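Hey, can you fold this one?
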Amino acid sequence: MKKHLLLALFACAGIALLHAQTPNPRYVGGDISLLPKYEEHNSGYKDANGKKINDLITWFVQDCGWNTFRVRIFVNPDGSDLAVCQDLAYVTALGKRIKDAGAYFMLDFHYSDTWVDATHIQAPAAWKGSSDAQMAQHVADYTREVLQTLKAAGAAPDLVQVGNEIMYGLCGIKVAPYNKQDSNWEGYLGLLKAGCDAVREELPNAIIIIHTDRPTNSGYNKFYYQKLVDANIDFDVIGLSYYPFWHGYLTDEQVKTKSDKNNLVKAIKQLATDFPDKKVQIAECAYNFTNWPNEGVNYNTQDVWECSKKGQYQFVKDLVDALKPLDNVDGINYWFPEEAGNGDDSDWNAGGATVMKSWLSRGFWDMSQTSSGHAINRTTAPTADNPAENVCAPYYMRNFLRNVPPSAVESVAGGQNAVRKVIRNGQILIIKGDKTYDLFGQEQ
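Sure. Predicted structure:
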């Protein structure tokens, strides 16, 4: 009874207090851009104990300690790709849910009608044919329009990505992270300045992220981000994608017998030297738990993390453990944690693609459809001596926060290690033994 009372108190009175200002907070969460579509098609989710989750965002916050959620936005998606559905109305509604859950909202501008990444830098159809100056104006006007709409709806982003994996260009303007004759740096930097300045004007306190996709290549990182610094582009965070099958290993220990000595930790430490005033966030990361990728794979990292639910858990644990001691890293976001198949769970015999055309097996839930919902990936069933964070990756991610208290579902009454949630001066505090923490895991 005490446990349920504490959970109810937490949910009703204090969840919005996640936004209480904490010096240098850390951000833990994921990109949940397709969650509303899964909900629309009645895809159920179950927790580590097999219990149905009523609201996935609230569950991530309360049970997993997540405090940040990313959502992508496209200018005018045409519906040809089921996963590209995030227009302004869609993002406004989802952003409002995130803010109402008391979490940080990270907005990911693609500045396109479809996916933008290292190999796709196309401008929106309505902007094509514009000069460099006109394209910069489009970026500025569109950024302001989106942010003004979100602010009016009570869904103002706390973190903003000005572009998605844009090391090689944006809106059709090409650059490269090395000297290349056809790089149009003047035009490209004009786009970034327009976007970043618009964010700063509309949301002066937002954290601005520039997101790239060559995380383990220190030479590329230095060349690229130095270009931005020299041009006085106003940004706060170096955002990196990290997928081991494309980008390599995590630490020196994992690559000591390999020919490629680059690794994520080594590169991030170099970023601390090259750009000491910039924080680093893992804007995207993921690992397959079945169906190893068969296209474009640069590294077969199954010698470190097998392609299984156990391997996925170990990847997340190793990533969190490796990055937690690094002072210049303040965020980890998992990509597509809500992935749960591609069919319509409201019709168990349909089998058609209604949420996405094919699944990637990188999310945290089993792909199979059952009337009781999708089971969470776990290495084994949790027990009192082997809690959920030891068997399920999303629970473990809260350990990236410093001095992390246990999750709400692990609260118990009595004993030396009893956990209590109390409200003092309008702030929720978590008491474990003789220590007190705020909701960010910072000891008080």
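The chain has two domains: 1-23+418-444, 24-417. Let me know if you want another pass with a different chain boundary.
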